[in-house]
UniProtKB/TrEMBL annotation:
Sequence repeats lie at residues 134-217, 228-309. Residues 1-16 have a biased composition (Polar residues). Belongs to the TFIIB family. Gene3D superfamilies: 1.10.472.170, Cyclin-like. Residues 1-25 are annotated as: Disordered. It comes from the Archaea. This is Transcription initiation factor IIB. It comes from Natribaculum luteum. Pfam families: TFIIB, Zn_Ribbon_TF. Residues 17-48 form the TFIIB-type domain. One of its GO terms (molecular function) is zinc ion binding.
Length: 317
DNA sequence: ATGGTTTTTACTGCGTC
DNA sequence: GACGCGGTAAAAACCAT
């Protein structure tokens, strides 16, 4: 047990030096100093988060600058309904010096806490937002997407709320489609099916709401590139690195010819992985790729035949 | 609402282990 | 016989008009 943990940590620290993702094995680690995270752009694996910054917040060269730059308070976050800005009253019945208090002070503090919470979430809009953001948080965790996606989803939801797009639609529906949009926007796509699996509303509503919100907020996203699914599917299928790179090559080459337009990206990615398996002489059953991509063997067959024809390479015999 | 395209469902035949 | 693969037809889903 201890051994496996140690290995895992070693693996991660090694990745920190090379910039290589230990999960999907691509050189796509990006560092986001604002969020204090290192994330793989391909598969969304978070390698490290919230490191402690031991240095000064900013460099200041004289007293004046120091005064201007210093500040207090927690960093802002979009994923709390008040951006983490309001006062929170500690639940411990201790004073600033850590001493316990008298009984009537206890009661006073309790009442303060209750009212603070009431004020914090005083109107319907804020309760609405609070609920939506907790839903986004829950689903994002279930999908295993990194914090930046959560923040983006929160921003989208706020915009939708501001423009009064929620009216007549369910909070869950809008929250879910915000998350779906955020995943695509951040280049860590999750299929509508995958999002639906962790959502409390059905796929039709998510799709419908997504289109509506994206349209109203002028969010114009390119159709998802199938190659973005490859690393994740490959690691789920446990295929060799060769197959993965070949699959990406197939996708790049065939999409350049425009073969992918109008086709479902997940099915397309699945087919490319299967085709890559043939070319690398590594057996990857159609059934397996279809299942992980949440599509059918028929779709895999149709796509992969087109792809192989397009790149004009038949499987090695 | 309608028509065109894609995906899914369901069924079948073939070869291999 | 189970399994993987291929093909097909019809139904369902999707999208633009």
């Amino acid at each position: 047990m201890t051994q496996s943990i140690t290995n895992h940590v070693e693996q991660e620290s090694q990745a920190a030096e090379t910039g290589r993702c230990p999960d999907c094995e691509t050189d796509t680690i990006v560092h986001d100093p604002d969020r204090g995270e290192r994330v793989c752009r391909e598969c969304g694996l978070v390698l490290s988060e919230d490191p402690i910054d031991y240095g000064p917040e900013w460099r200041a060269f004289n007293a004046q600058e120091h005064k201007e730059l210093s500040r207090v308070g927690a960093p802002l976050t979009q994923s709390m309904h008040d951006r983490g800005l309001t006062t929170t009253i500690d639940w411990r019945n201790r004073d600033a010096n850590g001493h316990s208090m008298s009984a009537d002070k206890h009661g006073q503090l309790h009442r303060l806490r209750v009212w603070q919470e009431r004020i914090r979430t005083k109107n319907a809009g804020e309760r609405n937002l609070k609920y939506a953001l907790s839903e986004i948080d829950r689903m994002a965790s279930a999908l295993g997407v990194p914090t930046p996606v959560k923040e983006t989803a929160s921003v989208i939801y706020r915009q939708a709320l501001e423009q009064d797009l929620i009216r007549g639609r369910s909070i869950e529906g809008v929250a879910t489609s915000a998350l779906y949009t955020a995943c695509r926007k951040e280049g860590i796509p999750r299929s509508l099916e995958e999002v639906t699996a962790v959502a409390r509303v059905d796929q039709r509503e998510i799709g419908r709401t997504y289109r509506y919100v994206a349209d109203e907020l002028d969010i114009n996203l390119e159709p998802t590139n199938p190659r973005q699914f490859v690393p994740r599917f490959c690691s789920e299928l446990d295929v060799s690195k060769d197959v993965e790179t070949t699959a990406v090559e197939i996708i790049d080459e065939t999409t350049r010819q425009g073969l992918h337009s109008g086709k479902s990206p997940t099915g397309y990615a699945a087919a490319a992985i299967y085709a890559a398996g043939l070319l690398c002489e590594e057996t990857v059953p159609q059934r397996a790729v279809a299942e992980t991509a949440q599509t059918t063997v028929v779709t895999v067959r149709n796509r992969y035949r087109e792809q192989l024809e397009a790149i004009d390479r038949s499987p090695a015999t």
